[in-house]
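Handout, page 2. Input:
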Amino acid sequence: MKQFGGAFAILLAVVFCAAGTVHAFVFTDPAGLYSTQIADSWVYQAHHSTEHLVVFYGDEDSALLYFERLGTVSYLSAWEFAHRSLELYRSPGGLEKFEMVRDLAEVEVGGEAGVSCAYTYQDGQGNQLWEYRVFLVLPGGEGFSIAFSDSRPEAADDPRQLEEILLHWRWLF
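Output:
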């Protein structure tokens, strides 16, 4: 009888722990480069996604999550990649009303070194958006970007939704 009591206690602990967590699914990149865990509230956008761009929409109309493969880049580091990208964002023809919100900082994604930052800009409809972005240069020189965007400043100040995704990130190379 003690065996069943111990198993029942473990089962109850699992149920109570699960009740406090967000429901999520494991997403594996169709090209087989990475996998991660994404909250069920995010909806995969097959019609906006390609072999180089994976797009998810969140609960809010403006919440957007995307993972972008940029092919081989000439940058030797994520720092170079980030600096050049930000230079393009703030230049004429770049992002309208671009402004940095959080400076460049080192970040690790699935064991790979990257650089993160946050900024705000105005989209084509005049909406102000905040974006938290991670730049990576993967082994073999492939550029990769992870971005979380929203109409709320929390996207740049405290991207909690992205933290969970990055925590479960696994490269498959």
